[in-house]
Amino acid sequence: MLIKANYVIIFYIINILVGVFGILLHYEDHPIFGIIFSLLQMLFLAFGGFLNAKKQKKILSIFWIGIFNLILGLASIFAIEVLGARFSIFGGSTDSVLVVLFQYTINSYLYPFLTRIEAINESLAIIFIIFCSFIIPFVGFVIGRKMYSNKVEQH
């Protein structure tokens, strides 16, 4: 039995590597480059959802990343809000929460947006990560399902 590829997970892993490389290119020096780069990575992740729909995968296949980020996000929000650990990955706080750092790293494709949102509220940045990890692949999946359900009905 062959293992069927989950394109959302594959593209998400590629986005982690490319996102870390993008951070190393210093988004702060050229903020517009960072935003464009991040938007392209979001489209890439949506394309993973599109390919999952094209291959007739179930909708649950696109939500694994969202579920993973939801679990990390709940742990992060608990650490930040309930435990009172004042954490600012970009501000140089002395209290660092590793789960938040890990979540920011694996979602580095959102880095230009996270820097701005995190300046307002740390928990809001984590909610943004969770929201994007569910919505971006879902949009691609819905587009793919609409396109390829029509082609299946025509045959």
Q: Your description of this structure?
A:
By secondary structure, this protein is mainly α. It has one domain (7-150). Helix content is 73%, strand content 0%. The chain is built from 6 helices and no strands. Helix 5 packs across helix 6 (122-154). The longest helix has 33 residues, at 122-154. It is globular, with a radius of gyration of 17 Å. The chain starts with 6 loop residues before the first helix and ends with a helix.
Provide a quick synopsis of the model.
With 155 residues, this protein is mostly helical.
Give me the Rg, rounded: 17 Å
Count of separate DSSP helical elements: 6
Order of helices and strands: HHHHHH
Based on helices, strands and strand pairing, what is the structural class? mainly alpha
**Count of discrete structural domains:** 1
Portion of residues in beta strands equals under 5%
Helical proportion, percent range: over 70%
Shape category = globular
Q: Estimate the mean pLDDT confidence.
A: 82
As residue ranges, the low-confidence spans are none
How would you sum up the major sheet? none
Distance from N terminus to C terminus (CA atoms, Å) equals 28 Å
Tally the beta strands.
0
Summary keywords:
155 residues; mainly alpha; globular
SSE topology:
Elements: H1 7-24, H2 31-54, H3 64-82, H4 98-106, H5 111-120, H6 122-154
